[in-house]
Amino acid sequence: MQLRLFAVALGASLLPVGLSTPTPRALPAPVSGATARSYLASLTVAAESNSPAYDRDLFPTWITISGACDTRETILKRDGSNVVTDSACKTTSGQWVSAYDGIATNLASDLDIDHVVPLKEAWVSGARSWTTAQRQAFANDVTRPQLIAVTDSLNQSKGDQDIAEWVPPLASYVCTYVRAWVTVKYYYSLSVDSAEKAALTKYLANC
After folding, report:
1. Mean per-residue pLDDT over the chain, rounded
2. Alpha carbons 76 and 68: distance in angstroms, whole number
3. pLDDT 10s digits, 120-150
């Protein structure tokens, strides 16, 4: 009952009674806790810089990934169960569980595609010096654990906050999220600020 009330409060559409709840699909596997701790130790610690000012248009989304499928549709298909698409690769039906909060839905419109490391966070951590092509690759990366379908209102409440400010409310997913964050930051040679590193160190101690 508590889950139902929470889901309604968030505006999520629960699966019909009698329809089994699908299991959340996994991100591309983040590194282990031990490897994440090693990666974290190697990341540059630096204050964030928003000069020049962040502009989301410098991170083009969504691009074609395969056939008619763009990044959003690719992640919806990956993260859902029994997903059906039309000839233009637009999702018409399916079942999803948001890994961040455990809420189930059968409406793709209830879901946002979250950038684990937010685009502005990447910008202030080093992506401001990248080319637009590099930023496009980052914003549409379906290979690293960077994109995931989650409850839209929760994604919007996360915004561009980093690990020191926000982690998923579902405690059992925090370790996965933190390992994914470090995997992405390490792969793209992005820096961490001191508060972010302290938070990552704390969470990874339990992974």
Report:
1. 90
2. 14
3. 999 999 999 999 999 999 999 999 999 999 9
Element (H, E) at 92: strand 91-97
Measured CA angle at 169 (ends 17, 140), to 5 deg = 90
What token pair was written down for 206? 């339990």
Q: How confident is residue 9, by pLDDT bands cut at 50, 70 and 90? A: very low
DSSP 45: B
Task: Say if CB 177 and CB 117 are below 8 A apart.
Answer: no
Sign of CA dihedral 199, 202, 203, 207: positive
Write 39-42 long-range contacts (CB < 8 A, 24+): 39/182, 39/183, 39/185, 39/186, 40/182, 40/186, 40/192, 40/197, 40/200, 40/201, 40/204, 42/186
In sequence order, the 6+-apart residues with CB closer than 8 A to the CB of 140 are: 60, 61, 62, 63, 65, 71, 147
Structure tokens at 201: 């160190």
- The answer to whether 121 and 156 have CB atoms below 8 angstroms apart is no
Work out the average pLDDT over 64-76: 96
Domain map of the chain by residue range? 2-204
pLDDT band at 23 (very low <50, low <70, confident <90, very high): low
